[in-house]
Amino acid sequence: MENLGYLFAAYSIIFVAIALYVVFLWRRQASLDNRLHGLEIQLNGVRNELAKDRLKPLNTSRSAK
What we know:
By secondary structure, this protein is mostly helical. Helices cover 80% and strands 0% of the residues. The chain is built from 1 helix and no strands. The protein is rod-shaped, with a radius of gyration of 30 Å.
């Protein structure tokens, strides 16, 4: 029982390291979620533009020959 202080210190260091790693992953995941959301918005905008272009009537009037 004389090394109980070292055991506590070792577990504390491991716990802090794991907690910091989880926070790092959490923040990185949030950043990726935000980026994905922005890309989804961009993709929807492009899809809407393409849909508008498809719905435009074509100029099919015939000019005199």
